[in-house]
Amino acid sequence: SLDVDEVLKEVVDKRTQFVEIPSGPGIFVSAGLPLIRVWPAADEEYDSSERREVHRAFVFGRERSFQQDIAFGFRQLSDIALKGLSPGINDPTTAMQAMDRIEAVLIALSSKELPRRVQEREVDGRKILVKVRYSTFEELVGLAFDQVRRAAFTSGQVAVLERLIEILDRAMRVNISAERQSSLWARIFTVARLCPQQISDPEDAVNLMLRAVESVYGLSMKQRVTINEDLDRLLELSEDLDDNGRIREAIEDARTKVR
Fold first, then answer.
1. Are 73 and 105 in contact (CB under 8 A)?
2. Which of 8, 142, 220, 255 has its CA 20 to 30 A from that of 228?
3. How many CB atoms lie within 10 A of CB 149?
4. Sign of CA dihedral 172, 108, 187, 215
5. Cα(173)–Cα(181) distance, rounded to whole angstroms?
6. Distance between alpha carbon 62 and the CA centroid of its chain, in Å?
7. What is the block-wise mean pLDDT of the chain (259 residues), using blocks of 10 residues?
């Protein structure tokens, strides 16, 4: 964990404009790496007392904790889902139960603002830019779902892929910022894009692609106008499927809502 205010109190002087803390909560820190970078450099070397105070602002441990590290929770839930999808265990029900908990966190995040990596702080009446390696929403969504998606395709778990699209769609309807919706839609699009090549049953591939296209309606109107290229790509990929008429119809219907 990290006390940014305590760090700034110790390192900022009258010349300081920018402070970077390259290792945020949950990041592994190797011995010898810098904890803080200050620009311009301080007029004088920090003495041992100042260094001790800076070090006290950081709490290190051998293992990660949940104190300030939301990514750790996503990592653990994703690991449970991955174990359920592994060939040796083959327990998709457990995988989907872990995904249910990920959905609950994504819904809860809709009313929360994540800490920004670049912030403006006031120290002794002066404005200082501070950059801290916090986890972004894009990173959290990728951590939660990207490996699960790959494992579901590898193991042929169509039900897990259906649940994945459903979770992303529902999260997209409550996380209405453009940045968050882009992250969520990108994962839905990836599932749909891979279906024609990686799903052995063409009917399953068509149904997954249809479900992905339906999720367009969960996007805000501002976001919908940016996805025509994605819809074009899905239409092109569906040409190799025998029953692509339903996909074409769904995409054309979605376009009328996009325009």
1. yes
2. 142
3. 19
4. negative
5. 8
6. 25
7. 91 89 92 91 79 90 90 97 95 97 96 93 90 96 97 97 97 94 96 96 96 92 83 93 91 75
Cis amide leading into 40 (omega within 30): yes
Contact 102, 140 (CB under 8 A): no
CA angle 117, 119, 122 (to 5 degrees): 150
From the CA atom positions of the chain, what is the Rg in Å?
Answer: 23
Largest CA distance in the chain: 73
Residue that has been written with the tokens 């699960």 in this structure: 148
DSSP code per residue over 36-78: -EEESPPSS---HHHHHHHHHTB---SS--SSS-HHHHHHHHH
pLDDT at 41: 83
Cα 259 to its chain centre, rounded Å, is: 28
User: Using an 8 Å Cβ cutoff, are 21 and 131 in contact?
Assistant: yes
Q: Tokens 């390696």 appear where?
A: 133
Burial 90-104 (b: 16+ CB within 10 A, else e): eebeebbebbebbbe
Dist. CA 74–CA 204, nearest whole Å: 28
Closest listed residue to residue 199, CA positions, set 139, 252, 240, 143:
240
From 118, 80, 121, select the one nearest 98 (Cα to Cα).
80
Q: What is the DSSP letter of 242?
A: T
Q: Position of tokens 């994945």?
A: 164
- Write down the H helix ranges in 57-136: 70-85, 92-109
**Euclidean distance between CA atoms 223 and 218, whole angstroms:** 10
Distance of CA 202 to the CA centre of its chain: 30
* Token pair in block for residue 53: 């105070």
